[in-house]
Amino acid sequence: MTRRAFLPVLVVVGALACVPLVVHSDVVLNFLVTALLLTLAGQGWNLLGGYGGQYSFGHAAFFGTGAYATAILQTRYGLNAWPAFTFGIAAGAGVGAAIGALTFPSGLRGSYFALVTLAFAEVLRILASVAPVTGAGVGILVKLDPGIHALQFSSRAASYWFILSLVAAALVVNRLIEGSRFGAWLVAVREGEAAAQALGVDPTRVKLTAMTASAALTAAAGCFYVQYFLFIDAPIAYGPWISVEALLASIIGGVGTVFGPLLGALMVKTLGEAAKLVTGDAPGLDLMLYGIVLIVVVWIAPRGVAGIGERCRAWFARGSLGAGDTAA
Amino acid sequence: MTSPILAVENLSKRFGGLYAVREASLTVEAGSITAVIGPNGAGKTTLFALIAGFEKPDHGRILYENADITGESAHRLARRGIARTFQIVQPFAGLSVLENIAVGAHLHVAQRAAALEAAAEVAKRLGLEKVLNQPAATLTLAGRKRLELARALATSPKLLLLDEVLAGLNPSEIRDMLPVIRSIRERGVTILMIEHVMQAVMSLAEQVDVLVEGRVVARGTPAEVAVNPQVIEAYLGHGAAARLAGGAHA
């Protein structure tokens, strides 16, 4: 793995880090924070779904577990936010490993895997909406206590830098995986499980590892959600919205690419806001517009925004090759 | 005679009420090329799946390097040195040729750069060096068969199971492939192959096992097997051997 492979990550993160120095509008920064939050959740989804080909419809299970663990440990057990945040990530990873261990060894894949993950998230949502420990229907409010010691930031810029550093870490993790043996195995499992197995790859173990790491990233997004909004309840934590947006961001941006979730999250969020602006106060109309634009985007770029660039490159490369080179 | 690298003993596999493989036994000598032939539906591919760990046998056992490997999963067997190709080629379509082969190389090489280097080396041996960076999906069938072979070879196997690597190739492509297979054996890899192309079996294999309805009905050198009455009957129907013999006398 060469250092050059990390150059694009450095450039993009560096550019994003400069934004609060130029833009001071709280509205814009808030928008960017939520986009980066979605990016992080999407990066988790992309690791398992994009690289590993295991399309989960239930990443809310990890997002919510991270969020609840962080909130409960702070409010009920008086734990400091830093260890609570770390435990939240670990708890999400644990749920990921558990769901993976229940589904992968029995050979669940494709739409069955998607449905089972959705079911797990829904079960957790229902449990969270009745269990006393999660605050049942009321939810949990985290006490306002701004300062770095409590991982709460009174300025939007500081929050922005905090979530950006998490996204940056996830970008680096993705890049590292891409250039590793594990990454090669993960993609091989996506492209053909039997063929991968014939080459010595243990598909169950590879998928399980990917699911655990994937859950950890999405859980981190949940932990951040709590620290930013200081509130969590069952529909937010385990609701289908985050599962759908996490996979949407990855698919729109480009599955199985390092920058896909970032591009996708920015697009999805921009689209949502733009639709609201255009349609004004008419309820539901923005969602319709949003849906139509999504369909068009997927139609034009089935491999995502990152895929468009790749396709152009491949097209130019093919143009410059001789016809003899295409035959084996 | 050297000791066999692979010994299959009374292997049976049933799907529902139908025996795909029935009490089949065969041995493969280390360093040899052994062919399994038989009419369509004889159970050849199932036999391969059993040996390579993709199916578990109902009865019988499989010995590899004198160790009982019956029922061991495919990825473990790959680590032991058993590699296979698939009759219906299964390239990782979204990856480049080089990346495809590198997955095989990663079995024993952890580092990415080293695996890519090893993969390029194998690709060169199989004449794939010009298409290294093409997506596997753009290869012709002949190219895909070579890729299938290259990937398996990249795992540095001791025993290579080839499931009809010549099927679907035209005569000139087959002619190009024969020396490739021979050179693999010359590097010390034992080969067990399923093959319908008799020209290839005749010129490559030292021993041929004939599988009919899940059983091994004949075994010998290609020349011996070709005149075996049971084999002729299996391919051409009941009484064919006698008619052929009668025709020869008349």
Q: How does this model look, in words?
A:
- The complex is a heterodimer of chains A (328) and B (250).
- Chain A has helices at residues 7-22, 26-51, 60-75, 81-103, 111-128, 156-178, 181-191, 193-198, 203-229, 234-238, 240-253, 260-279, 285-300, 304-320, and strands at residues 140-141, 231-232.
- Chain A is mainly α.
- A two-stranded antiparallel ribbon of chain A has the order 1-2.
- In chain A, helix 2 (26-51) packs parallel to helix 6 (156-178), helix 2 crosses helix 11 (240-253) and helix 7 packs across helix 9.
- Chain A is globular, with a radius of gyration of 20 Å.
- Residues 321-328 of chain A have low confidence and may be disordered.
- In chain B, the strands form two sheets. A six-stranded mixed sheet of chain B has the order 6-7-8-3-9-10, with helices on both faces. In chain B, strands 2-1-4-5 form a four-stranded antiparallel sheet, with helices on one face.
- In chain B, a hairpin with a 2-residue loop joins strand 9 and strand 10 (215-220).
- Chain B is globular and about 60 Å long.
- Classes of the chains: A mainly alpha (328), B alpha/beta (250).
- Chains A and B meet through helix 7 and helix 8 of A and helix 2, helix 3, helix 4 and helix 5 of B.
What are its keywords?
heterodimer, A: 328 residues, mainly alpha, two-stranded antiparallel ribbon, 14 helices, 73% helix, globular, disordered C terminus, B: 250 residues, alpha/beta, six-stranded mixed β-sheet
